[in-house]
What does this fold into?
Amino acid sequence: MSAGKKTAAGVIALLAIGLGVFLYGGWQMFGDELKAIRSLKMIEDKVYTFTYKGDYGFKGFLEQGGAKTDAEMAVYIAGFLSKGYMKMPSSDEVPMEAGCTALDAAGAFGRNFDFEDQGQSVVIVRTEPDDGYKSISTSTFAFLGFGPDWHPVAGMDGFMALASIYVPLDGMNEKGLCVADLIELDGDTAAFDTPRPDLTIVGAIRLVLDYAASVDEALELLERYDVHPSIGKAHHLSVADGKRAVAVEWKDGRMHVTETSSVTNHCLWESRPGEMTAESRGRLEAIRNLSPVNMQDCLDAIKSASYDDFTIWTALFDRETLEGTWYFRTDWDKPVSFEVCDR
It folds into this structure.
């Protein structure tokens, strides 16, 4: 072999070794993220799913004090998932009409996500954290600050899509604990501050899904944090475990708990009469008059309380099978189902 050929072969060998080291280092740094991105797929029009196994940084997020606003949370998410290589847009306000319903009955937890439908994509997220409970949850990319028409295609989009782990809007964990976020039309959005660490409402949902096995444990965890409004609106949570169901609400930094198996969009811990909540009160009364005795009854009850044109998804979580079933945009003949544990 000539000297030139030997030199070329040596260069190629060095490049191959360098590429191997680079790829190995990249895998070591982004292995969990890359596997999750590889699982990302569109299962039907504007509906995505992915599974994340490993450390997605939520424990570290809590240890560094959480976040008081959506923008603060976005900074942390982008930094952790991309190891500092990307920034994520954030919107602290989503000016859309909303009105949701949650119901715990007949061994199931159901909810309608009623929100002004601007064509936003929905994502079903399955998580298996290193230090918490497995869960399934629902999110929408519109709440990540990308706009209602954004959908992941390839490359850095995949990392951005993973941020939906931090923006669960409802879900169930492997212990059968279910939770849903609902707009509280007459709720409190005033700023407050106490010595406790901070969470936005979606951060509180991830906290409950990852670390609570029961309603009692969920309330104990939530009591440790200042829980703040998100997207410029007040929210409350419906939390249920099959034995106990509650609505959790906040005012001036204080948490209020109401025993109830059904929740709509007005304050429950105290009476706040007003025209803006009349429809919500009517839905709550109607759903309380129903007595579901099986899964289909529960679904029918949730369907009857939907906004139709505003219902982006209906989720039904079965504690016995640990399976979630989704119906998108009131297409009741086309359910999509996933189990909490990826098998």
